[in-house]
Protein 1
Amino acid sequence: MAAKEPVATKDRNYLEVFDDVAELLEASRAASAKSINALMTAAYWLVGRRIFEGEQQGKGRADYGAQLVQRLAGDLSARFGRGFGRANLFQMRAFFLAYRDTVQTASGQSGGVKKVRTASGQLARQEVRMTSARLLPDLARAFPLPWSHYVRMLAVKSPLARAFYEAEAFRGGWTYRQLDRQIQSQFYERAALSKNKVSVLAKGSKVEDDLAPEDAIKNPFILEFLDLKDEYSESDLEEALVQKLETFLLELGGAFAFVGRQRRLRVGDEWYKVDLVFFHRELRCLVIIDLKLGKFTHADAGQMHLYLNYAREHWRVKGENPPVGLILCAEKDHAVARYALEGLPNKVMAAEYRTALPDEETLAEQVRQAQVALVRRRTR
């Protein structure tokens, strides 16, 4: 009878298999995220080029270009959903104009490339309508960064500075936040003026916060490009808390009317997402609810004020009172609810809001109950 293999050896063999499989999956996720970003960016460059070409039919008239983009925004949004609004299309057009002299595509000869020529303002329709299988993979290689990075770099007017940030972001593996921070701190200008450029570049290339492949795929730009739903980016805990709160507010009576979940808004080049939006019939105002997994911070309050300013300008309709914000923070064994009433016109209205809305401790208790229910469900 053969001797049994020691348990330690079996465990070691299993861990080796597990490590190899996990590494393979991580690598495939990272490659998928990069591939999606590159193809999406290439597609948007081509969209921008086609819009520019279409505008030339109006001989460069600004009113014709605006009408073209406006009509495209409506028709494309109806067919493909979000991500093709007027502002987005103008960004794609600006992206093409900013990078039309640097983008290269395969020439069809081994190892050879050629510039994309647009001097005449017109390209052969046959080239414009080339299939993505033939054109996009080659064009995608010209864009090593995510689309959001290029959107941010459009604010950089100098082509030399843009090229610098693109190269350094790629070399250093910068996230969007890092790129934004470097641009705002004038990293290009500081590096150009520095006597010790090597030292400045070395410090700037350090990566402080990595972005996981699954987080990259959850980026709103990619969700739109792949026509995925926002629910793919929500954690189980966040989903359970939002559902619990939504049910509780609707059960209070006729005061709260449901408006939407995971309502997205865009401020500048940044995307944000509000967990719940209700309308309070007695107060005649929107109630913006944001859930945070962790303790309450001043940054949470600042972000809520951003939401309220946006809602006041873009979501409020004539006759409605100013919106009110509710921040819910769910820590491990604790929950906090805070209303944001500082933006109301006067203290009388703030007092009226507090009288009509559920008190903060009651809302915090609902969050705690949702946490307990989720833990019980996971331990069954």
Protein 2
Amino acid sequence: MVNDVEKRWNDPGAVRGATRYLAAVLVITAAVFGVCVLWASGRAECSGERMLCDTAAQGVTLLAPAVTLLLGAIGAFVRTFLVWRRGGSWPIWQGAGWFALVLFMAYLSIGGGALAG
């Protein structure tokens, strides 16, 4: 069992798994963003104007990738709990969850600021 006070965790397999998980979350988020932009650019309501011309296009383009990042963060935290219960190196997965959560907050704040101004 891992001593939680000791900070010398060394589990290359867990690091690879968490890195692959985060890479997959980022690829899925980018794909969701691409689909949202394609959808917004093909709308008849916005022909000839800027691509995100109405509230629906702006909201979907802001919220869909953000929800994907949030679900990725929650998934990493669930994995943290499961690894902790098994007595494994859980801080690696906790770090992955916090990284995804920071990306979620950054995307929301930058996107929300761009839409507001």
